[in-house]
Amino acid sequence: xxxxxxxxxxxxxxxxxxDTDTRTRLRVNCLCRQGKWQDCLDELRRAxxxxxxxxxxxxxxxxxxxxxxxxxxxxxxxxxxxCYSHAAPTASTWKVRAMHCCDWAA
Length: 106
What we know:
The chain is elongated, with a radius of gyration of 17 Å. The protein has 6 helices and no strands. The protein is mostly helical. α2 runs antiparallel to α3 (37-46), α2 crosses α4 and α3 crosses α4. It has helices at 2-18, 20-33, 37-46, 54-66, 70-73, 94-102.
């Protein structure tokens, strides 16, 4: 019985540590709490496909503000909870993504 319990705990922990979205969100949160704003943004740029929660959006926008990039790079990151990030947008795609993630098209 104890072996099965240890095996189940191991499988659970392995699943949690292999969840790259959760690890990325936690790493970004930790970097923001330490005031490493540019590292936070760099981490998100290296991890396309992360689902943006409301707390992650707050961290991203604060990091953009603290680094002076808020007016120029705000829409390079989704601005609606539940949106998924993609590779860094080019000048031609930023407006389409901004409209999708901010409901401006509706």
